[in-house]
Amino acid sequence: MTTTQGDLLRDVPAGRLRPLNQTEMKSALADLKQIAGAEPVVAALLAGESPLRDFIVAALALSPHLRETANLEPSLLVTAIEKPLSSQVEDLVQQARHAWLPAENGGPSPSEGEVMTRLRVAKRRAAFLIALADLARIYDGRKTTHWLSALAEASILAAIDHLLLSSHEAGKISLPDPTSPSLKSGLIVLGMGKLGAEELNYSSDIDVVVFFDETAGIVPNPEDAIDIFPRLMRRLVRILQERTADGYVFRTDLRLRPDPGSTPLAIPVDAAMNYYEGRGQNWERAAFIKARPVGGDIAAGQAFIRDLVPFVFRKYLDYAAISDIHSIKRQIHAHKGHGAIAVKGHNVKLGRGGIREIEFFVQTQQLIAGGRMPSLRCRGTEETLAELTKAKWIDAETRDELAAAYWFLRDVEHRVQMVRDEQTHLLPETDAELKRVAFMMGFADVSAFSEALVTTLKTVERRYAHLFEQETKLSTETGNLVFTGQGDDPDTLETLRHLGFERPSDISNVIRTWHYGRYRATQSVEARERLTELTPELLRVFGESKRADKALLRFDSFISGLPAGIQLFSLLSTNPALLSLIVNIMSSAPRLAEIIAAKPHVFDGMLDPGLMAELPTRDYLAERIKSFLAPARHYEEVLDRLRIFASEQRFLIGIRLLTGAIGGNMAARAFTYLADLIVEAALDAVMKEIRSAHGDYPGGRVAVVGMGKLGSFELTAGSDIDIILLYDYDDTGGESSGAKPLDATRYFTRITQRLIAALSAPTAEGVLYEVDMRLRPSGNKGPVATRINSFEKYQREEAWTWEHMALSRARLIYGDEELVLNAERIIGEVLSVKRDVAKIAKDVREMRGLIEQEKPPESIWDMKLIPGGLIDIEFIAQYLRLIAPARGVGVDANGLSTAEALKLLGGSLMDRNDLDVCLEALRLYSELSQLIRLCIDGTFDPGNAPSGLIELVSRAGDCPDIRTLEAELKRLSKAVRKIFQATVGN
After folding, report:
1. SS (H, E, C) 174-215
2. CA 869, CA 438: separation in Å to the nearest integer?
3. Is 40 exposed, middle or buried (0-12, 13-18, 19+ CB in 10 A)?
4. Any residues with CB less than 8 A from the CB of 886 and at least 6 apart, and which?
5. Is 662 within 8 Å of 616 (Cβ atoms)?
6. How many CA atoms lie within 13 A of 488 on its CB side?
């Protein structure tokens, strides 16, 4: 429906509404003529012909509720006709808010009856004006729900202020400031559901939960609080809900509190927190997504919600929540008359394709991802759809379709309720009453309305079904799958053979083990039920992999080590793509399988649909690490969160590599960006700790140099990191400024030791990185931290050729800006010295010979150590960097990968064909090394490697099979060795 411009009813366009029939129209006109006898404005309206006259007649004819309100208070109709609507509604919201105040300054507080009357009058008037504004389309659904929510909030705030003040005046409690009763009262009233989200419907009840802080000090004897506050809440319900001659304010429901069957109406904060942390359920997490303080001590309410964030939005994704939420939806199907889509009698809230499905669509994804993506912690449905789109969980088309459907259905819901002010979501079952709703929606007839409604419901159902309703059936097209009893079922063995398993009896035995609950992961009934549902699809997908038996046995080994299984089984049931991926992992990547078994939370990011589309750039990772570390409150928590983040992101980078979403080069960059950010965050945390214990050192500054593969953007999944910590300070300073002062050497040594421990000390969440500092000046014999002038002196006067080779890969990754620039200048100058080319060539040859002697390669697959392997290529690049100044080639090749450095230097210092061969070999070695390091520990052996990995490696090498790839490795390594010898000599 198009909206009306302006805020006056007189702007309503012709034909906005039509009366239901002649009888209803005559009845409405008769009432209006009676009102006109005392109200000239209405008389003038009826005397002429205008769109406004037609609209008012039609509105009152279509809604007996509005007609009754107009008859009860004709002056309200007059102000609706004459004045702007929003300012009137706003005034009425303020009247409701101030209903607890004395009629005159300094006068007595109003009685409870007076407060009830004031609230009811304000509600009746506001509801009348909002309905007319909505029917005229001056308000769309967004504005209607906003004003209804504002009115409810104002009513609760006023009622609570009245209750607290009356208790204060009766001597039951002692308020800090009786002129602002709720302030610092410790009484928390949270609006839930549509009230919390500011999306209240026209005849809505309101869901609230109430907590109180016993330590707030307003109850003289804290033990009395458990009697006082629940009693006040009974009065709150009466104030808002009881029907009097003036009507009611809002039906009020307090059943969303913890264990409502056995708890009082108001609960102590500590008891509530203990409940949610220990026994809170997924439906309660979903309910608290929209929770908002709407009464009482707003600051205390906000603090309560902040404290509840870890319960609602978990640090790890909770896959069991998907099935749990889905089971709530199934209960709605079963218990709420949930049937096929039919317009008559359809429940627009709970029915198929209804409002609840849109809310579930949104909330489930919030529960899954809100822990790591704070931007998804919104209350409003439309706002959350927008954020889900930004986060790439849904596409723009889904967002737009569901947002449009949401507001269309909310409009239908409002009109169903406006007819007689009833809290109903059911469309009428008779043609006549359905026609009334169709006309209130602005449709020409029931047919057009029904078509639009069914289209909308089907759109929602389709989107919802795509997300959730992929329930696995326990029968398959391929035949029987029976795993009960002691012996094998012959038909089942045949089915397993048909699915691709070579040892069906062994596989049948494994699955019986699952059903007997012999593993921790299958001990609970729920876990076994989930696994039973999943088994047919699991067997089908595993059967499609080569060496299916081995892959399934690896999966069996994986679940045998899980502490619990329900979350994983729920996840795999609802996400077929993930099931395929886990089969891929089990059949090709034992190392990843072990990581998943040890740290199931690494799977969390796999539910992010944007994962494969999003490249793991530095900006991408930086944004995520920032939001993931934000809730950490102390040093140990920062370190734990860093470990969780690192293991998860390493896994997700690996998954992208495994599935071909990124190549080896991008994976190397991503692993390096991740390490950079981890070091940066760890150093920040360490510096904060050092400063709190020892203060600042005068002029103190530090910088971290990445060496080796960290420096050249070439880390793999299992790499350790080589770093050097540089520092400087003002010579005038004697010691640090803290409570436990340290001299310079000890101060910066302590920083370095704490940084190494932060990165490499094992905690419950594992290790971040093994740290190697042997590339610092004087190696293991030198101090762990190096002052910048000592670093410069050592590099200029004492460093060996191999140390300058290592320096050619140095990259400043974090630290004080001035110190970083100084270190980069020193490195650049040291590497720009014109050296004796023959001596450098001799040193490089000797270094390579020594490595070959001490670490001979195990096979052609030891791509780092084989003659003509990675070390040869790296040494060529480093050699060229050191001789470039002597050959008149002035380039700065620091902060580059080996491939980038080769391209930069080799263009001037190598034969073009040799350069191309080296780059081709490097590209192949990098692709294969990244994949192999990801999937297994140790050297790759095609004879013992998982079949899936052999396929992946062959594909990464662009070869049809492993034998062809092996021949290609031999060809390239032989060519590289010749180039190495030609470049640095024999």
Report:
1. CCCCCCCCCCCCCEEEEECHHHHCCCCCCCCCEEEEEEECHH
2. 76
3. exposed
4. 834, 835, 836, 837
5. yes
6. 15
CA nearest 184: which of 193, 192, 176?
A: 176
What is the Cα–Cα distance from 750 to 935, expressed in whole angstroms? Answer: 37
DSSP 13: P
Q: Locate 185 and state its tokens.
A: 């009262």
C-alpha to C-alpha distance for 423 and 200, rounded to whole angstroms: 12
SS3 103: coil
Nearest residue to 247 (alpha-carbon basis) of 128, 139, 109, 83: 128
Tokens of 789: 């002038």
State the pTM of this model: 0.68
CA dist., res. 720 & res. 714, Å (int)? 11
Q: Which residue has the tokens 């470049």?
A: 983
150: Cα separation from own chain's centroid: 29
Residue 860 in tokens: 């052609």
- In the chain, DSSP finds a helix count (H) and a strand count (E) of 40, 10
Reduce the DSSP state of residue 811 to 3 states and report it: strand
End-to-end CA distance of the chain: 84
Structure tokens at 801: 């050729």
Secondary structure class of 475 (helix, strand, coil): coil
Cβ atoms 573, 566 nearer than 8 A: no
pLDDT digits (tens, 9 = 90+) for 483-527: 755 567 777 888 888 888 888 888 888 887 786 667 878 877 677
- 3-state SS class at 706: strand
Kindly report, residue by residue over 318-366, the tens digit of the pLDDT: 445 555 555 444 433 433 333 457 788 888 997 788 998 899 889 888 8
Contact 683, 721 (CB under 8 A): no
**Which letter, b or e, does each residue of 690-707 get, where b requires 16 or more Cβ atoms within 10 Å of its Cβ?**
bbeebbebeebbbbbbbb
79-85-91-92 Cα dihedral, nearest 10 degrees? 80
**What's the token pair of residue 446?**
């029931």
